[in-house]
Design brief:
The complex is a heterodimer. Chain A is of the alpha+beta class. Chain A is built from one helix and four strands. The radius of gyration of chain A is 11 Å and the shape is globular. In chain B, the strands form two sheets. In chain B, strands 1, 2, 3, 4, 5, 6 and 7 form a seven-stranded antiparallel sheet that branches. In chain B, strands 8, 9, 10, 11, 12 and 13 form a six-stranded mixed sheet that branches. Chain B has two domains: 162 residues, Alpha-Beta Plaits (2-Layer Sandwich); 78 residues, no CATH class. The chains are: A alpha+beta, B alpha+beta.
Chain lengths: 70, 247
């Protein structure tokens, strides 16, 4: 589910429209915190796409809440 | 006097968002009796690794109708507010434009569109603001937010970008409303089918969670799509959050 982005960060490997996977990932994530309302894009309240630690990238998003991948 | 206020980059990962800051500014202007403020719109800017934003890279913007002689006091007030209230580590930028006195609204709108597609520099933003006679100022950190602030103003002025901050609220938790009833809402200028279908005032629209309008052709438009479930009797439904993502 994760890969390294061009700067070594933890990038979601399934892109910006894998809604079910993003919700599943957030459901298991200890770092999840909801972003402000105007920045939320997923129907599921608890979704990586709605997390304040997700930083949109060109292909997907980088997670700033979890440690970088080894 | 009608003015446009846009801000960007006032937040960090833990703080309140730029949208809340915009709301507080609008409320402060209202409470002081300095003018009335419009709804706030959110404008997505370019996502690129070279752009050092926090998590969104979006600017917030609203119109204010202020009394004569209030322009400089408003600029001063908002600038001080940003310096006081912006998050640690942020790089807040403020743009205040007077559409009626600007050298070229078209150029400002074009800048906004550019900022959605390519990396723009602070220098370009300042040069354009100066040439157009638009106020642009930075209020902390690197001041990188001036780019988004100027772009946000341009995008709001262009009238074809952005979505409502917050959502439409109704007196009662309606599940279904007629198009004609929706048009009575103060924040709804038009109701349109996203696929281009024709709507009649008597058509029923199923209202989803937290419906939002988007800015299209200068209007606050509630977009609808064909209803997925027919049980409510509605032939249309408001768009889901994920369908509004591109606005």
């Amino acid at each position: 589910m994760w890969r390294k982005d061009e700067r070594g960060g933890r990038e979601f490997a399934l892109g910006p429209e894998s809604w079910t996977a993003a919700a599943r990932s957030a459901s298991e994530c200890r770092a999840f915190a909801p972003d402000v309302e105007e920045e939320q894009v997923a129907e599921e309240e608890r979704s990586c796409y709605n997390c304040r630690f997700r930083r949109w990238s060109r292909a997907s998003f980088t997670c700033l809440g979890l440690p970088p991948l080894p | 006097m009608k003015i446009l206020i846009a801000i960007d980059d006032t937040d960090n990962l833990e703080s309140r968002g730029t949208g809340e800051i915009a709301s507080l500014i609008a409320e402060d202007l209202r409470q002081r009796g300095w003018g009335s403020c419009s709804f706030i719109t959110r404008h997505q800017l370019f996502v690129h690794p070279d752009i050092p934003y926090t998590s969104h890279n979006s600017a917030m913007c609203f119109f204010a109708d202020i009394g004569e002689g209030r322009l400089e006091p408003v600029i001063e007030l908002v600038g001080a507010f940003l310096e006081r209230e912006s998050a640690e580590g942020s790089d807040p930028g403020l743009c205040v434009a007077v559409p009626g006195a600007m050298a070229s609204a078209r150029e400002l709108s074009a800048f906004g569109r550019r900022a959605k597609q390519e990396v723009v520099t602070m220098e370009e933003a300042y040069q354009l603001a100066h040439r157009l006679g638009v106020h642009l100022s930075q209020h902390g950190g690197t001041g990188q937010g001036v780019i988004g602030a100027l772009a946000g103003a341009g995008l709001r002025l262009g009238g074809n970008d952005g979505r409502l901050k917050g959502s439409l609220e109704f007196a009662h938790p309606y599940r279904v409303l007629r198009v004609g009833e929706l048009l009575q809402h103060p924040l709804v200028d038009a109701v349109r089918c996203v696929a281009g279908g024709a709507l009649r005032e008597e058509d029923l629209v199923a209202i989803g969670e937290k419906p939002k309008t988007v800015l299209l052709d200068g209007a606050s438009v509630l977009l609808v799509s064909a209803a997925a479930e027919k049980g409510s009797g509605a032939c249309w439904q408001t768009l889901h959050r994920k369908q509004l993502r591109g606005y």
